[in-house]
Amino acid sequence: MSVMVEQEQKATPKQANTDRPLKLAVRIFDQRIREHLTRTIQLSEQRKPGSLQLVDANVAEIVLIDPDEPGADAFIRNASRGRRPLPVVYASEQPGNEIAWLKRPAQAGDLLAIMQTMRDELASLPADKAANGQGRVRPDLLPISENQAGLDQILGLLDHATQASIRVGGITVILDGARDRIRVPRPLAEIENAALAEKITADLLATAKSPPAEGSDLIRHSLTLTELGWRLGLATSPAPEPPPDALKSTIRLERWPNFALLPHEREHLLWTGRLIRMGQTLEQMISQASGGYDSVARFYNACVLSDLLREGTGHQRKRPRKAPGSAGRSGIFSKIIQRLAG
Amino acid sequence: MAELKIVITGCMGAGKTTAINSISDTPLIATDVGTTDEARLEKDTTTVAMDYGTLTIDDDRVVYLYGTPGQERFAHMWEILAEGALGVVILLNHRREDPLADLEIYLENFQQAIANSTAVIGITHVDESGDTDTTAVTPYYDYMARHGLDYPIFPIDARAGAQVRVMIEAMAAMIQLDEETDEAV
């Protein structure tokens, strides 16, 4: 079964067109503020017809946010990576020079002025920056033996889309780049359709069926895109042979995967430590891996899909020598972990 | 034989006692007292000496899990508790006003113990902050990068034994990595 991707919001136009209205959204929860801004936008539109169009944040080019509200930083983070919509902070005081700011309370003149600035900023975004996020290029996946096209599509959406829907077996799954979530229309735990055999869905099901974390009554209704990418990567079936040039490339991780939530094997922690600390080539990783190339490739693809990997030359930090007697601790830790697992 | 111990430290309200309780074999021995100062706004009781739990790893050996008192005025005890530790877990309450300042305090005060072992950072109360896991850990990674440190950082729920266990697993990985590095030198 193939994964159908309907990209509702493509990476927005490469050039801002001054002849058309700027698509503007208000993503602020406070109803009074939202109503005030809506009136201000309508007033601005009356002053300068055809300049602004109030839309939902999912399809907006510009979004007004309250920096103190949950999720607002996701818009700032996305914009810093060249993704749209570009945020304008609505606050009484300027939060910082690098973030566009509309002074509260808003007036039509101020709004039109900042929107002109934002229009220019949109126009100045290089096409490749908009597409890839400040020129950052996600490394390629190692080849997989099935559904490569489906995974490539998902990879493209993770990089480019503000929001897109993926239809799998009759269920629409929403990829929401701005909010870093993948959502389904019903709680994950209610989806039992056996026809959803595609890896992405199987993965969602696996997550839904797994018990909530100990001590937590949280019921999972959605996944972060990072978690989705990680799980999909581990579920890939690597092609038998890696491309020869990939074996020699040095890889490093930017951060630890959130192993508190993500499925993992003990070896993944060690690999992560090595890849963060000094970097390794795939060849080196394979030579040390108990599961050989297959296990390394799954881990690598999980890191690529969850945007943890960066390419570059590894380096070795100078580390202090341990005090005498520190050697042999890993044996004790093995015992501790066995005990905890048991 | 030297005592085997893992030290769990961090600011008040970060979940040290809860974390120990979630993985300890034995009922936690706590030294909580009612808070009397401004800390009372954050929680009703706090640890004043130490908490401890145990993990029996085989017939002969027990690993002690020591939770330090969180408040800085008890810092004189931290060094004593941490001496000879297998590793140090630093728990940070993400909802505190300046958790990076908290991190700095614990990295400085446990510098010697960490240099002789390793450290893992657990970020708690992320859900209540409105941040995603990814956005929550970013400033901590930035801090680590600025200081040339590479300790694992995980957003965790201290009530979940499985999540606390991941920090111990990561600590084990870092120790093994250190031993590999030492052998290579």
Would you spell out the secondary-structure blueprint of this structure?
The complex is a heterodimer of chains A (342) and B (185).
Chain A lengths: L3 E3 L15 E6 L3 H17 L4 E3 L7 E4 L6 H9 L5 E6 L8 E4 L4 H17 L2 H6 L15 H13 L2 E6 L2 E6 L4 E3 L15 H11 L12 E3 H11 L8 H5 L1 E4 L12 H12 L2 E2 H7 L3 H14 L3 E3 L17 H13 L1
Parallel strand pairs in A: 2-3, 2-4, 4-5, 5-6
Antiparallel strand pairs in A: 1-7, 7-8, 8-9, 9-10, 11-12, 11-13
Chain B lengths: L3 E7 L5 H8 L8 E3 L10 E3 L3 E6 L5 E6 L7 H8 L4 E7 L5 H11 L1 H5 L3 E6 L1 H4 L3 H14 L6 E3 L5 H24 L1
Parallel strand pairs in B: 1-5, 1-6, 6-7, 7-8
Antiparallel strand pairs in B: 2-3, 4-5
Helix pairs in contact in B: 1-7
Structure description:
- The complex is a heterodimer of chains A (342) and B (185).
- Chain A has 342 residues and is an alpha/beta fold.
- Chain A is 39% helix and 15% strand.
- Chain A is built from twelve helices and 13 strands.
- A five-stranded antiparallel sheet of chain A has the order 1-7-8-9-10. Chain A has a five-stranded parallel sheet with strand order 3-2-4-5-6, sandwiched between helices.
- The longest helix of chain A is centred in the N-terminal third of the chain and has 17 residues, at 31-47.
- Chain A is elongated, with a radius of gyration of 23 Å.
- With 185 residues, chain B is of the alpha/beta class.
- Chain B has one domain (2-175): 3-Layer(aba) Sandwich (Rossmann fold), CATH 3.40.50.
- Chain B has seven helices and eight strands; from the N terminus they run βαββββαβααβααβα.
- Chain B has a six-stranded mixed sheet, sandwiched between helices. A two-stranded antiparallel ribbon of chain B has the order 2-3.
- In chain B, strand 4 and strand 5 (62-67) form a beta hairpin.
- The radius of gyration of chain B is 16 Å and the shape is globular.
- The mean pLDDT of chain B is 84.
- Classes of the chains: A alpha/beta (342), B alpha/beta (185).
- At the A-B interface, helix 2, helix 9 and helix 12 of A face helix 6, strand 8 and helix 7 of B.
